[in-house]
DNA sequence: AAGTAACCGAGACGGTACGTCACGTCTTTCG
DNA sequence: CGAAAGACGTGACGTACCGTCTCGGTTACTT
């Protein structure tokens, strides 16, 4: 969320801090009820009990607002130490699936990603606010696995980065596709199956 | 795609066949230039050299139109027999990636999927027009692999279906995420790495 | 309605005669229900059980159609010989009022007259089809009154024409205004009062 | 005219006062050029240099707008004291004729009256904004004539009202019919003739 | 009896205007 | 001086009719 306000002015009446929270909450609420395309800033302002101008003073448009509203959802992501790599993978997949099961995350995330295709600034904002926050978990997981000796330490840093990215795309992408496109629940059983395939693929020794 | 027209009437002036093609092409063109949110049906009609009413006579709205326009892109999907399962997997992933590299596919697909979250009918339309068409490739690939003896024949049909779905979600989801969210190209090298992990995960013997 | 058809061809299938009547009747019906501005030719065609093209083959547009539909109403105008000038005037005013009491006449007549202000051809059509048909009654009435000796024979033909026109404007205009603008019924009592004033004004000797 | 605005709010940006005048002027201009049926609110808005929405915020539709635009024309009506009843009648008829000679009055007035046949609210609006404003002149004229002794004071108030209404329908109706239906100018000579008949009819003693 | 020309219904077509909605900006008054 | 309220210009929406056109099929005159 970190500072939409370009410069913290000293003078005049300060901006209401509660308004921010109310607006983001109202945005998520509207996202659930209406979806991205039918969500209007006027409606969000009304739900938040705030004038439209107040909203425009803080965000540049619908996309920016929704990114911030959705990003807050990912603040709760955390990687519990389950003891084994397999369990850790299952854990993170389940957490990610839990967030994506919430309709405000589905509508919001997909829509802003779609919009970001034609908007570089938006893409950057998404990466900072949402994507990197998730990738952190993958990094942590790998570090733990290496510490436990489940994975060999990767000497080539470039290769390491590529692997991280691949894992991340596989985890996030597969869960999203299961949830949104196939419209099937990413429940525990499914997660176990997916995690098994993922783990095998990553740990099986094989020629490059 | 097949038949938006609910009933093929016998009487009256028949619908112009060329108009359909022009409209869908114009839709893809506009999708590339403007993206989903800035695409307007009036603009599409103008590009297609067609009246707005003609467009509304055939499609219920923006979403339906875009689904059909994007679905045509997937008609060219085909599974070349590359001789080995590994090569086949690489082949299909590459083909899918090639389609998703086109901006009209990116914008269009993501946006309608996002919209489909709040629209059951749209979700169904997407499944019929786009998803099933892709899943067919996975089925074919599996059948070939079994015929070659690369994969053991699956006796439990329920388990087989689950595996197919998982593979499909992994392939499509990962490619989409790589291409759209991570905004990195799904080039040949990446595809090789991904296919290797996927193949190892699927073929490694292991306890369920 | 004297020849909408520009040239009566000899060959081919002749136009359905019943269609004309059905269309004009449907027009009057629609005029009653909807009024001029909400009346659509498509709706009239549907009511008449006729294709829109059939309608356009016979009339150039809404105005022309309505003029013909309304003109038929005035065919029934007739001047009964009531024995005295006073009674004759009352009679013709009552007849005119009776026609104007019908809503299809009100909407239709006023609207086409309003349209005729910007359409010379339409004005001419109205004059031929409707106005002259009414003026005939005034002429007849005057002739009878002269024959009875109630009015002195007018020697100056120009002056005679001017008087006829004035009477006609007074009768038709006053009845229309009473009925449409004041929205009061032109009942027998009111007609008696109006006819008395009119008769006194016309017969009182006085310097020009 | 007086206040289309249902409630004069205190808060928010007030409505532009100049916009109202510009819109009504533009309406009259368009009425002259196009007539009622070809007049579009979009065109009026463009002429007035105003957004279409601004127009719809103030008026419910074309009819209401035209009534107000035409009503302003009748604000200038005034009864000059010409000294005699005959001169006063001539004066008011001439004034009314002068207004009706303006094409915006012709098209506008006739059309809204025609529309009012199917719209009670519109009829009421016309009565308030236009008709009553004219009837006032008749009342004034009668009062003056009585004061001068030209007309006997009417004891029965019901009969007085009926006479006023009759005179009003005769004056307004006849002038309208002359101007619009007969499409002849209501010039001074014609007015003199008409006023003479009217005066004789009203003042000649006669049995009821 | 066959040919054929004009009719008929149905309905798609390119248009124009509709009246509404949301946008993002602006001008007010109030706290 | 910020915030609410709400009017403003802009532009797309989806709909309704317009008047024209293409169909397949039907009549009634002509030969």
Can you describe this structure?
- Chain A has 208 residues and is mainly α.
- Chain A folds into 2 domains: 17-58, Homeodomain-like (Arc Repressor Mutant, subunit A); 71-203, Tetracycline Repressor, domain 2.
- The first copy, chain A, is built from 9 helices and no strands.
- Chain A has helices at 17-34, 41-48, 52-58, 62-71, 85-100, 103-116, 120-148, 157-181, 188-203.
- In chain A, helix 1 (17-34) crosses helix 2.
- The radius of gyration of chain A is 20 Å and the shape is elongated.
- Chain A starts with 16 loop residues before the first helix and ends in a 5-residue tail after the last helix.
- The model of chain A is unreliable at 1-10 (pLDDT under 50).
- Chains in contact: A-B, C-D.
Give the arrangement of secondary structure elements:
The structure is a homotetramer of 208-residue chains.
Chain A: H1 17-34, H2 41-48, H3 52-58, H4 62-71, H5 85-100, H6 103-116, H7 120-148, H8 157-181, H9 188-203
Helix pairs in contact in A: 1-2, 1-4, 1-6, 4-6, 4-7, 5-7, 5-8, 5-9, 6-7, 7-8
Chain B binds a DNA duplex (31 and 31 nucleotides) through helix 2 and helix 3.
Concise synopsis of the structure shown:
Chain A is mainly alpha-helical. Chain A contains nine helices and no strands.
Which whole number gives the mean pLDDT of chain A?
A: 86
Q: Please give the count of helices of chain A.
A: 9
Give the oligomeric state of the chains in this entry, treating copies of one chain as homo and distinct chains as hetero: homotetramer
Low-confidence stretches of chain A: 1-10
Quantity of strands of chain A, as a count: 0
Computed structural class of chain A: mainly alpha
Largest sheet of chain A: none
Number of domains of chain A: 2
Report the end-to-end length of chain A measured between terminal Cα atoms.
41 Å
CATH topology of the largest domain in chain A: Tetracycline Repressor, domain 2
């Amino acid at each position: 969320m970190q500072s939409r306000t370009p410069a913290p002015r000293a003078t005049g009446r300060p901006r209401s801090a509660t308004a921010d929270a109310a607006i983001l909450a109202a945005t998520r609420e509207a996202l659930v009820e209406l979806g991205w395309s039918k969500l209007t800033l006027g409606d969000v302002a009304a739900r938040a009990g705030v004038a439209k101008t107040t909203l425009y003073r803080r965000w540049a448009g619908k996309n920016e607002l929704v990114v911030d509203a959705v990003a807050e959802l990912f603040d709760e992501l955390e990687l519990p130490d389950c003891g084994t790599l397999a369990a850790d993978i299952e854990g993170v997949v389940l957490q990610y699936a839990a967030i994506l099961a919430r309709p405000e995350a589905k509508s919001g995330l997909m829509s802003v990603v779609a919009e970001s295709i034609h908007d570089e600034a938006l893409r950057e904002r998404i990466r900072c606010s949402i994507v990197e926050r998730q990738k952190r978990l993958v990094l942590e997981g790998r570090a733990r696995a290496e510490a436990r000796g489940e994975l060999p330490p990767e000497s080539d840093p470039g290769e390491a980065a590529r692997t991280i990215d691949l894992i991340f795309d596989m985890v996030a992408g597969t869960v999203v596709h299961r949830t949104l496109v196939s419209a099937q629940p990413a429940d525990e059983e499914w997660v176990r199956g997916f995690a098994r395939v993922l783990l095998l693929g990553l740990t099986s020794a094989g020629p490059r």
